[in-house]
């Protein structure tokens, strides 16, 4: 136990301390001898990591749901009403992918964060553009298709870089990105040149089926603690180029 005089001295010492910047990723202990603290006043600072689940199953599942809906619309099986499609596009693929991207950012998964956030903005912008052109004039409809086509062309370039990254992940993600690339190519032609919509619908269906398969495999493999459902090994490891240097 300490007396009141010793406690006053401890408070005074604590007020005059100048702590340097701490690395909170490691445990830090202040020894009592350095600042004349008794043993019971040793201070230990720890930083516990934030543990969150892998959001990739959620993000990819929402992609499968919206691609299935749009594919059925492209084949004429369901209504092509923009007013009915846009809420599903905005809420499911827009907001849920954005949440998945934010969670992946907390998990320091740069690929998941970039892909989910970028495609969340894609779906949000596409749904918003559909609403804007639906309630606009004929000039707005034509101009909106051209603007959307130019934006989708930009995503063709972005998605190609994602294809290269997925070479180091697994084969199913690689196949999904390749299918999305064809969706974007045919969608650009449809918006800018007025081509038929069935090629876009075909690759939307392929993307949807692959996305549902990935979601199912991801959930089962996490529960099993290993690869019970096949996802495929990486096709090429970019890290091998760094090791060779």
From TrEMBL:
Localization, UniProt: Membrane
Record's keyword annotation contains Zinc-finger: no
Predominant location: membrane
InterPro entries noted in UniProt: Gpr1/Fun34/SatP-like, SatP
Keywords, ordered alphabetically: Membrane, Transmembrane, Transmembrane helix
Any matching Pfam family: Gpr1_Fun34_YaaH
Keyword flag DNA repair: no
Listed transmembrane segments: 57-76, 82-103, 110-132, 144-165, 172-192, 198-216
GO cellular component, one term: membrane
Membrane topology (UniProt): Multi-pass membrane protein
Family: Belongs to the acetate uptake transporter (AceTr) (TC 2.A.96) family.
Name under which the protein is recorded: Inner membrane protein yaah
Protein's organism: Anaeramoeba flamelloides
Upper lineage: Eukaryota, Metamonada, Anaeramoebidae, Anaeramoeba
């Amino acid at each position: 136990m300490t007396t009141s005089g010793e406690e006053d001295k401890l408070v005074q010492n604590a007020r005059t301390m100048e702590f340097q910047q701490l690395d909170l990723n490691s445990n830090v202990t202040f020894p009592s001898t350095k600042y004349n603290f008794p043993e019971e006043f040793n201070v230990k600072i720890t930083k516990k990591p934030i543990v969150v689940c892998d959001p990739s199953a959620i993000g990819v599942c929402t992609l499968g749901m919206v691609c299935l809906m749009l594919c059925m619309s492209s084949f004429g099986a369901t209504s092509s009403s923009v007013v009915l499609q846009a809420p599903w596009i905005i809420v499911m693929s827009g907001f849920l992918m954005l949440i998945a991207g934010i969670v992946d950012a907390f998990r320091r998964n740069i690929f998941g964060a970039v892909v989910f956030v970028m495609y969340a903005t894609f779906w949000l912008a596409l749904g918003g553009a559909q609403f804007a052109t639906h309630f606009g004039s004929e000039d707005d409809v034509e101009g909106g298709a051209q603007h959307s086509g130019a934006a989708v062309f930009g995503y063709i370039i972005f998605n190609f870089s994602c294809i290269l990254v997925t070479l180091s992940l697994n084969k199913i993600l690689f196949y999904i990105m390749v299918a999305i690339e064809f969706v974007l190519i045919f969608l650009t032609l449809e918006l800018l040149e007025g081509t038929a919509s069935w090629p876009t619908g075909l690759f939307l269906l392929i993307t949807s089926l692959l996305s549902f398969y990935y979601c199912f495999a991801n959930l089962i493999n996490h529960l099993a603690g290993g690869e019970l459902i096949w996802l495929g090994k990486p096709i090429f490891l970019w890290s091998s180029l760094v090791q060779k240097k």
